From TrEMBL:
Residues 248-533 form the GH10 domain. GO terms for molecular function: endo-1,4-beta-xylanase activity. Residues 55-81 are annotated as: Disordered. This is GH10 domain-containing protein. Belongs to the glycosyl hydrolase 10 (cellulase F) family. It comes from the Eukaryota. GO terms for biological process: xylan catabolic process. Keywords: Carbohydrate metabolism, Glycosidase, Hydrolase, Polysaccharide degradation. The active site is at E468. Residues 61-72 have a biased composition (Acidic residues).
Length: 591
């Protein structure tokens, strides 16, 4: 095992697809997969896009200096070769190209990055999904890769990842490229990359980015108010002991909760200690509150919401509707169009009126990128209608879209571009969209792929929340690493305003092998990492007021309490907020 780890480390950042650029046929080692013919080409106009600095950022490279500096990445990034292989006369969508991953063995529990460019021939209308898949030991189910939705005659970037989940390293691995319909010509650049990901430079970069995005310099101008001859004056408190404690971060971190979980004292203890916000996993969903037509009960939801109110935990409203048909209860699916419209209006009035003013957020119609149950039956405007009517009944909450796989680069139905188009269409129809929910049910995450998706969503100008974050890995160290990657990417991104986990305790989670704490209350490696991040992202400072009455510190945005101990031993308190800003925040602090 030690040899395997050493070998994997040796190849961090190295393309495991060996260069065959001088091959006699010019195919650079690519072979047909299925029924098609291959030919080699060079782009004389150098119009092929560059793989860009992000490839080096994800792959790592040498570990000297600040490997996360963008200029250095640009210098190390491979230049585009201008060469590609064309697959023509394809008989089905499964036909395409394949290529061996031969420079080094693929190792279990190592995250690999797949990156490159794929294109379509010009003689085709519209856009199509191109899949890059990695298969091990002679085929079988793919272990991962990436997908790009490519327009006719253009190129699309593949940014994907994979990890092999097995006890022994596979003997062989191949990359397959396919996807468009039969007859559509398919292209792939010869410099496609498969690299083992080095997370260390990226994490170092994210710590620096978080310091820049989430922190601010603060100057407290401290004085003591005195009454002299009935005239208020201030006196210096130079040398007084001062302590600054952050009591709330501006980026809340929460979790879903369940009625069953709340029966467990260890569950309640972890939730109340470590989370700021809550969301009900199932208890507010329509299929839960009205499983049988006409029998509506909010008893379980009320119990959980009342608990959160008592503990000062805001609750997100999840969800009013769910667009995916198999998540709609049978009696709703059986309704006629007129009956369904009436049921939708009753659900809106019943739920939103009942909790008016209690939820800061609503997810209005869950997973519209993956389902269109209401739209297919009630028309294209129904989704926007749900937003408009919710805002009419309760104007206070921000109304969110919410979907999965947007950050994964492996789902052609859920690209960031399609998500932005959905939001734009809703807004065009008058829907008051107030935020974008990225669920975050991640598998083998790669930091810059997540960041790229968040960047694309941020162009809407809407706040982004990670709404259902979980990872699944039987190996505790892998689970902790995966969770840390996503948490740090989200926290360091300026458009992200909150993070919600989709559970935390063994036996009370939607996905297995995702727990932060075991059923007996013992923290896992992921739980210890999470608790450590919460401490890291909380600022405290202590010292003495200087000779001119100032106390300076740098802290995360949020709410603080300051404790001043006077020379007489009296302790006085004040509260203040640190908001975003480039210039130092200067606050007069009279005690």
């Amino acid at each position: 095992m030690a040899f395997a780890e050493e070998e994997t480390t040796r190849y961090l950042g190295t393309n495991l697809i060996e260069s065959c650029g001088d091959s006699e046929d010019g195919l650079a080692g690519w072979a047909p997969s299925g029924s098609c013919t291959l030919s080699a080409h060079a782009d004389e106009d150098a119009s092929l896009p560059s793989l860009a600095a992000a490839l080096s950022a994800a792959a790592g490279g040498d570990d000297e200096g600040d490997d996360s500096d963008e200029d250095e990445f640009q210098q190390r990034a491979p230049r585009p070769s201008g060469r590609y292989v064309l697959a023509a006369r394809r008989a089905s969508d499964k036909d395409g190209l394949c290529r061996a991953v031969s420079r080094a063995p693929i190792r279990p529990n190592v995250t690999y990055r797949v990156a490159g460019w794929v294109g379509l021939g010009a003689a085709v209308d519209g856009s199509h999904a191109v899949h890059v898949e990695v298969r091990v030991d002679g085929g079988g189910r793919p272990v991962g890769g990436g997908v790009a939705v490519v327009e006719s005659g253009k190129w699309g970037q593949i940014k994907g990842s994979f990890r092999v989940d097995c006890d022994e390293p596979p003997r062989h691995a191949k990359v397959y490229v396919h996807g468009p319909p039969a007859g559509v010509d398919l292209k792939v650049t010869t410099d496609l990359q498969v690299c083992a990901v080095n997370k260390i430079p990226r994490l170092r970069h994210l710590r620096k980015k978080a310091d820049k995005v989430r922190k601010r310099d603060v100057v407290l101008k401290v004085s003591r108010r005195t009454d002299v001859d009935d005239d208020d004056t201030t006196a210096s408190v130079a040398g007084a002991h001062i302590q600054v404690v952050q009591v709330q971060n501006s980026v809340p971190i929460g979790s879903c909760i369940t009625k069953a979980g709340m029966q467990n004292p260890e569950y309640v203890d972890f939730f109340t200690k470590h989370f700021d916000w809550a969301v009900l996993e199932n208890e507010l969903k329509w299929y839960y509150t009205e499983a049988v037509r006409g029998q509506v009960s909010y008893a379980d939801a009320d119990e959980l919401i009342d608990f959160c109110d008592r503990h000062g935990k805001p609750v997100r409203g999840h969800c009013i509707f769910w667009a995916v048909e198999n998540s709609v209860q049978p009696w709703v699916r059986a309704l006629s169009a007129d009956q369904l419209r009436a049921a939708v209006e009753a659900r809106l009035r019943g739920l939103v009126s009942r909790y008016a003013g209690r939820f800061p957020h609503y997810e209005v119609n869950n997973e519209m990128l993956h389902g269109a149950f209401y739209q297919q039956r009630l028309g294209d405007d129904i989704n926007a209608h749900m937003f408009r009517e919710t805002a009419q009944i309760d104007p206070a909450p921000a109304l969110f879209v919410n979907d999965y796989n947007v950050e994964s680069a492996n789902d052609p139905n859920a690209t960031p571009e399609k998500y932005v188009a959905l939001v734009t269409d809703l807004q065009r129809r008058g829907a008051p969209v107030g935020g974008i929910g990225v669920q975050g049910h991640v598998t083998h995450p790669v930091g810059d792929i997540i960041c790229d998706a968040l960047d694309k969503l941020a162009v809407t100008g809407l706040p982004i929340w990670i709404t259902e974050l979980d990872v699944s890995a039987a190996d505790e160290s892998v689970r902790a690493d995966d969770l840390e990657i996503v948490l740090r990417e989200a926290f360091a991104h300026p458009a992200v305003e909150g993070i919600m986990l989709w559970g935390f305790m063994q036996g009370h989670m939607w996905r297995s092998h995702g727990q932060l704490v075991n059923a007996d209350g013992k923290y896992t490696q992921a739980g210890n990492m999470f608790a450590g991040l919460r401490r890291e992202w909380t600022s405290h400072a202590r010292g003495k007021v200087d000779s001119i009455g100032n106390f300076k510190f740098r802290g995360f945005h949020g709410t603080y309490q300051v404790l001043l101990t006077t020379p007489a031993g009296e302790v006085k308190k004040r509260t203040f907020d640190v908001h975003k800003g480039d210039a130092p925040l200067v606050l007069d602090m009279d005690f």
